């Protein structure tokens, strides 16, 4: 095994909790112009890009080939729940006909 290759990934929180969720009041300063009543197509398209960036983080965990484990302590709210639900075994699905698929 290569020395730089991780055998597993453990996701943890900090400060005694895994995730309190998104800080909406803090994000609204940036997001309000994108989703407010005066927003036209360009800012709303930028907001869609922001949401896709957030989703990409969860998708990266879900698609990771290395085993991922979430070590949850304390609160786990909002996107943290999506994140802890995303880890997989890191193994590809069993091939049809293999012993693990039967």
From TrEMBL:
What Pfam family does this protein match (any one)? ECH_1
Residue ranges crossing the lipid bilayer per the database entry: none
SUPFAM superfamilies registered for this protein in UniProt: ClpP/crotonase (SSF52096)
PANTHER family on file:
DELTA(3,5)-DELTA(2,4)-DIENOYL-COA ISOMERASE, MITOCHONDRIAL, ENOYL-COA HYDRATASE
Q: Which family does it belong to?
A: Belongs to the enoyl-CoA hydratase/isomerase family.
Q: What is this protein called?
A: Enoyl-CoA hydratase/isomerase family protein
- Say which species the protein is native to: Streptomyces thinghirensis
